[in-house]
Amino acid sequence: MTTELETGLPSIRQIQTLTRDGTEVELKLSTNDLLTGKIRWQDQYCLCIIDHYDQPTIVWRQAIVYLKPKA
Amino acid sequence: MTTELETGLPSIRQIQTLTRDGTEVELKLSTNDLLTGKIRWQDQYCLCIIDHYDQPTIVWRQAIVYLKPKA
Amino acid sequence: MTTELETGLPSIRQIQTLTRDGTEVELKLSTNDLLTGKIRWQDQYCLCIIDHYDQPTIVWRQAIVYLKPKA
Amino acid sequence: MTTELETGLPSIRQIQTLTRDGTEVELKLSTNDLLTGKIRWQDQYCLCIIDHYDQPTIVWRQAIVYLKPKA
Amino acid sequence: MTTELETGLPSIRQIQTLTRDGTEVELKLSTNDLLTGKIRWQDQYCLCIIDHYDQPTIVWRQAIVYLKPKA
Amino acid sequence: MTTELETGLPSIRQIQTLTRDGTEVELKLSTNDLLTGKIRWQDQYCLCIIDHYDQPTIVWRQAIVYLKPKA
Questions:
Q1: ipTM for the complex?
Q2: Which of B2, B62, C42, D46 has the fewest CB atoms found within 10 Å of its own CB?
Q3: CA of B23, closest CA in chain C: separation in Å?
Q4: Which residue segment(s) compose the domain that A36 sits in?
Q5: How close E52 comes to chain D (CA, Å)?
Q6: pLDDT in tens, C2-45
Q7: A21: how many CB neighbours lie within 10 A of its CB?
Q8: CB A63 to CB F64 under 8 A?
C-alpha cells in the first residue's frame, strides 16, 4: 500500500526528467551543504544522489532548499 | 491524480500574478540565501525561479522565508 | 475550493484585529530577520507585511517565530 | 468550525495549568531567543506570552524548543 | 477526544521503557542544546524531562534531534 | 493500531537493506552533527543507530538531512 508520487506536478516531473537524462544537479541543503551528482530515484520522502565515485546519498526532501542543473 | 493549488488564497494568487507579469522577485531562504529572478511556475511543493542567465532553480516551499518584488 | 481560516482561534483573530487596526508589528523570522510593518492580509500559508515605503513582503507562516505589536 | 485543543494531552493540560496559575515561564525558541513571561492563552498554532510591561508576544508553536517554569 | 500514542512503534515503546526505568537520557535539540535528565512523560507533541533539581522542562518533539541513554 | 511503514518506497526499502546487512552508515543531522553506526531499526518517526560501543541513539527523521553508506 504505497502512496503514489503526484506525477502531474511540475516539480515531480522535472525531477523525473533530470533523473532520466542523467543531468548533473546541485542540491542545496538546510545545513548549507551543497551536494553535486546525478539523481538516481525519488520517492515521497527522499531523493537519491549518486556522486562521481558512484556512491549513493539518500537525501531527505525536508532538508532540501533548492535544486538546479549544474551550470 | 493531482492535488490542486488553492487558487482562492491570496498567497497563491499573488504568486500567479507575479509569474504572469514576469516581475523580478527576491526570495529569502531558510539558509539565509537570497535568490533573485522571475517565477516560472509554482506547485504545492516548489517554486521555479529563472535567473538572469535563464537558468532554473527549483526552490522548495518549506525553505522559503519571504518573497517580495525586487525594489 | 479553499480551506477556510479557523477564525475561532485566538491567534487568527488577533492577527485579524491587528490587520484591521493597521497596527505596526514586529515579525521575528527563523533566519533571525526582524520585519517591521503593517499586516495587509493573512491566509493559511502566509502573511503579507507592508513596510514604510508601502512595499509588500509575503512571509511564510512556517518561518514565523513570533509577532508582536511594535512598542 | 474550529479544531479543538486536545485537552486530554499532558502537554496541553500543563500549559493550561501554567496559564491559570499565572506562572512565569521561560520559552526557548528555534532562533535561540529565550522569552520570559506569563502565558495568556494557547491555541493549535500559537502561545501568547505577556512580559513584565504587559506587552503580548504571539509565539508560533512550530518555533518552540522547550518551555519551563522560571526557577 | 484524544489521539492515542502509537504504542506499537519501537520509538514510542523505547521511550516508555526509559520513562518507566527512570533512565537518565541526553536529548540533543535543534538549537544544539543538550538536555540531561529523566523522562517523566511523553505525548504526541512533547516529552517532559526532569533535571537533577527535579525541575520539569517540556520539550517539543519537533525540536528533538536525537535521544540516548546517558553513558 | 499502528500505521505501517510504506515498504514499497525505495527510501524505506534501502534503509531495510542497510539494517539487515549491518552496513555502517553516516547520518548527517540538521544540527550539522554527523553520526556513524549501524541501523538497528526504523519506524515512522525515528531511526535507531548503534555506535562502536554498542550504544543506541534514537534519531528523529525530522532532523535527518542525509544518510549514506560509510565509504
A1: 0.94
A2: B2
A3: 13
A4: 10-69
A5: 13
A6: 578 899 999 999 999 999 999 999 999 999 999 999 999 999 99
A7: 11
A8: yes
